Amino acid sequence: MSAPHTGMHWQRDLQPLLDDYLRKIGLHSTQARMRWVAHVLAGLHLHVGEFAEDDIVEQAVEHLRDAIDARLALLVDLDRVHQRHELAAVLAVLQNEEYADLVNALFQDFENTGDPHLQKALRSAILADKPQPVPPDAPLSMPTQTIELRSLRHPFRASR
Amino acid sequence: MTPGDQVGWRQQLDGGVYLARRSAYFFLVALTSLGAMGLLSAAYGSGGFTALKLLLLVLYAILILWIAASFWSATLGFWVLLTRFDLFARRRRIAAADETRVLPVDGRTAVLMPIYSEDPDRVFAGIRAIARSLEKTGQAGHFDFFVLSDTRDVATWIREECEWYRLCSELDAHGRIFYRNRRDNSARKSGNVADFVQRWGGNYRYMIVLDADSIMAGDTLVKMVRLMEANADTALIQAPPLPVNKETLFARILQFAGTAYGPLFTAGASFWQLGDANFWGHNAIIRVAPFAAHCGLPHLPGREPFGGEILSHDFVEAALLRRAGWRCWLAYELNGSYEELPPTLIDFAKRDRRWCQGNLQHARLIAAKGWHPVSRLHFAMGVMSYLSSPLWMLFLLVTGVEGYIQSQDIPDYFFANHLGPVWPDSFTVEMKVVLIFTLAMLFLPKLLALLLIALNKAQRQAFGGVFRAGASAVLESVFSILVAPVLMLFQTKFVWAIVLRRTIGWPGQQRADHSTSFRDALSMHGVQTLLGIAAGVMSFLYLPDYFWWFVPVLSGALLGIPLSMLSSSVYLGRRARDWGLFVTPQERKRPEVLLDFDTALAAAANNTLAVDEALREPYVQALHVALLPPDTVLSRRQQHYRQGLMYKVMEEGLQALSTAEQRELFSRPESLRELHDWAWTASVR
Prior knowledge:
Oligomer: heterodimer
Structural class of chain A: mainly alpha
C-alpha cells in the first residue's frame, strides 16, 4: 500500500481496512463504523510524524484495537494497560451470537460511557460467558516411584 | 453376627473364590498345553530328537501356552455369560444400580480427555455427547470435564480453543468444562494426566480417563462412581469399550469381532484376574489420591526404546496400584463404554508399532521387585502379544527346514536282523490332531460367541439374526486368516526394529475414515509380497508335500496390497452393512449417546481456519490471549529471541517458523498482539 505521510491518500486507503476490522467485531451500522474509522484516523493523524511510512497500517490497526479496548475498559472498570488479559476475556465473550445486539449497542458510540443499562448488560454477559479455562489450583504431590529392576548385568539396579 | 464378623466371613469367601477360580484357570491352561505338547512330542520323537525338533518343541510350548491362555479366558467367559453366575459381577450390578447411593458432595469426579493433535471437531463432538448424556442423569453437577491438550500445532491449538469456548457457551457449562494446552508436553499421555493430578487433583476424589476417541454414556459414568463409593479398597475400575462408528470394511469387520467375541474375553479375563485386573489406558475410573501417591512414573535406566520414559503407562500404573495394596477391577458388565478403531490395516499396523514398543519395554519390568504375581502376568502377556509373531515366524521357518531335511532322508526298510521290511512309524495322525487342536483353540471362541448370540433373543435380533451373524463370523474368520500373516510380518518387523533400538517418537493418529492408495499399500506391503512370492516358490520347489499347508499363510502375504486397499473402502463397508453383514447392535439400534455424537459431529463447524486467517480474527485472538497464562518477565536474551522470530515472520511469513517457534510466539500475549496487527498489514500488501 502506498501511504505517503504528506497527503491524505493514506487515510482513504486505510478506511476499508478499518471498516473490515469493525465488521469482524460485529458492528453492523455503517454510520457507527464510519464514526469509529474517522475517530481512529484523526488520532493517527496527530502522530503521523512519529512512525515510518511502512508502519502505517500496523499503527492504524493498533490504534483501532486500543480504541476498542479503551471503550471496554471504561465500561467494565478495567485498566487498559495493566489488565489486558481480563480485557481480552471481555472481548472474547462478545463473540457469542446472542450478544450481537449488545456489541452493536456497545460500539454504537465510542464516547458515551455512562449508560447504566449497557454496563449492566455487559457485566451479565461477562458473568455468564467469561472463559474459565481452568479451575483454581488444588495441587497433589505425585512422588516418583521406585521400580527395582532385576537384570543379569545390574541385578539390583533401581529406576528413579 | 457383628459387622466385623460379616467382613471377615466375606473376605474368607472371596479368598476361596480367588483361589478356586485361578486354580481352575491355570490348571486348564497347563493341562491343555501339556496335552498338545505330548502329542507333538510323540510325533517328533520318531527317529529321535534333533536340535531342530527340540527348538520346534520349545517354540510350540511357548505359543500353545499363549493360545491356551486366551482360549480358556474366552471359554470361561462364555460360561460366566451363559450362567450369569458371577458373585463379584452381581455385587457390582447391585452397587451400580443402587440409586439410593448418593454421589459424594465432598468428592467430585473429573472426566479427563487427554488429546494430542486430534481433529477438534471429533474431540468436542465426543465431549458434547458425553456431557449431554450426563445431564440427562441429573447428576452432572458432580462432574467436571477437562480437555487436556498436548497439541503442538498452533492452528489445531486455536481451533481447540474456539471449539471449547463454543461448547461451554452452548451447554452453559463455563466453569464445568475446562481446557488447557500444556506448554511442555513431557512424558506424553501419562505426563499429561500427571500434570492434571499435580495441579487440580486435590479438587477431585475420582477421575475418569478417556481417550480422544472415547465415548461414554452418562449413566455409565454415574454407575462407575457408585461402584467406587461401594468399594473403598478399589482404586481402579476398567469399563471395557466396544468399538463403534467406523465405516471402512476393515474397521467394520473388527467392530463386529470386538462386539461379538470381545465380551467373552473380557468376562473370562475378569473371571480369573478378579481384583488384580489391568488398566487399558482409557474408559476407566481411578481414585485420585492413591493414584497421586503411587503412580508417579520413574524413567527406566538406559536409553529408548527399552529405557527412558515408560510408554505403555497403563499396565505400570495398575501394577503400582496393586503393589500398594489397592484393587483394580475389570467390570465387564458395564455397558455404555465405546471407542473407535483405526480405519485401515495400515493405521492398525501403525498403532501396533507404538503399542509394540511400549509392551516390549515391559519385558524389563516382569521380574522387578514387589509386583503382584498377576501384574507380572499382565506384563508377560503384553510382551507375548507382540513377541508371538516373530516366534510364529520362526516356527514356520524351522518347520520348513525340518521338512526339507526329512524329505532328503531315504527310508531304510531292511536293517539289523529283521527278515522282512520295517515300515517307518507314521505320526501323521498325531500331527493332524495337533493341528486340529491348535485351530480349534483359535476358532472355538468364535463359535461359543455365536452360540451365546443364538441363545439370547435380544442379542439375536441385535446382530440381525443367527444367519447373518454366522455369515459375518465366517467371513470375519476368512479375513482374519488372510490378515494374520500380514500382521505377523508387520509385528516381526516392529519387534526387530525395537531390538535394534529404533524408536518412533510420538506421531499423531489418523482416525477418520479414509481409503488406502495403491502407493501407500505398495510401500507398506511391497516387501511382504516379495517375501510371500519367495517363500511360495521355495516351498513349492523344495517342500512340495508341505506346500498346500503353507498356502493360507502365503496367500495372506501375497494378497497384502489388495487386501489393504479393498478393506479400506468405505463403499464396501457400507455395502456389507446393507447386506446385513458385520452389523453390530450399536449400529442396529444406536444408543442415545452415540446418536448425540452423530448429531454433534454433523453439526460441527468443520472449521479449517488457517493460522494467518485465525490471527486476523479479533475474537479468536482475544480468546487465545484470555486463555494464556499471564505473561512472565522475559530475560534480555529471550526478548531478542522473540523479536528475531517476529522479524522472521514479517519478512518470510508464519510458514517460515518451525512448530516450536510458532508456539513460542503464540504463547506470549504481547507477541500475539503484534502478530495480529501484522496479519492485517500483510492482508493489504
